[in-house]
Amino acid sequence: MAERLTVAFLGPLGTYSHQAAYDRFGSAVDYHESTTITGVFNAVSARTVHVGVIPQENSIFGSVVETYDALRRPNVGFIRGEVVLEIQHCLLVARGVKRDDIRFIKSHEQALGQCRDFLAQNFPSVALEKAASTAAAAQAVLTSRNSAAICSKLCATVFDGLEVLFEGIQDRNSNFTRFFVLSAAEDGELPPQPIPVPSPTRCLLRLSSGKGNVGPAITQLLVALAMTVSRLDRRPQLDSEVVFHDIYFAELERRDATWPSEIENAIERVRASGGDAHLLGIW
Question: Where do the coiled-coil regions begin and end (predicted)?
Fold first, then answer.
């Protein structure tokens, strides 16, 4: 019998990462729960799993900082695809807990940020507590009579003893999160996917001007890149000799059939300009 491939996600069961992973790969794989996003990256790079599914950006609250912090590291893996999931947040409590009983609301920082208006209007004096994931927050309130969790409605099924107090509490009805599909290498084996995946149209580059203060500025690197940049993110470069020195993540859009060779040429142009460019994924 052929080996079943494994997919890591930010757990526990019931997280949006779990839902995104299942939507992409279904029941043909084994799922591995990680307690943090960094843990998913570590499982992929150590090759203890074949694939990881990692939240990258939310349409309301923006980029997932922990994901981009991990992408600063060398040998972090290779992005092979993406999953876009519509997010519908609910407020869950232990069965029998009433609205006036709530003194703490727990969730992942992304979910707390996506529900700021609801929280300000309905629970202005309640303390907000960050959790490792939305489902971890749901799990934590099982035994708490003064807490609630922001998570998916699915958590009320996954964790017996919870009930939904409010549904659809995100600040905008149009709320989506994009997830990266990560493998250890560009040619690593991917699980079969129920829906055919289109030809690659995007790639992600990590750009920097070196560790000193004499390298080219980001504007010079983008000029050298000379490609269509659809988004640009930045995080501090921790091993730099200069404070407030950043690493940039440039997502590029495909232009024509010569795209793979264009990416290679763009990387060489950046390096020739005195900067550094590293390919993090094509999907």
Answer: none
Domain that holds residue 58: 6-86+176-183
- Please tell me whether residues 72 and 123 are part of one structural domain: no
Of 254, 78, 81, 211, which is closest to residue 266 (Cα–Cα)? 254
pLDDT beyond 80 at 34:
yes
- Cis preceding-peptide flag for 12 (omega within 30 of 0): yes
* Sign of the Cα pseudo-torsion (113, 115, 121, 123, in order): negative
Whether 227 maps to a domain, the answer reads: yes
Does 253 fall in a domain?
A: yes
Beta carbons within 10 angstroms of residue 132's beta carbon: 19
Over the stretch 37-75, which tens digit does the pLDDT of each residue have?
A: 999 999 999 999 999 999 999 999 999 999 999 999 999
pLDDT tens digits for range 91-128: 999 999 999 999 999 999 999 999 999 999 999 999 99
Residue 176 has pLDDT above 80, yes or no: yes
Q: Which token pair is 95? A: 């069965």
Query: Is the separation of the CB atoms in 225 and 269 below 8 Å?
Result: yes
pLDDT-based confidence at 2, cuts 50/70/90?
Answer: low
Buried residues in 67-84 as b, exposed as e (16+ CB within 10 A): bbbbbbeeebbbbbbbbe
Find the distance separating the first CA and the last CA of the chain, reported in whole Å. Answer: 30
Q: Average pLDDT, whole number, for the chain?
A: 92
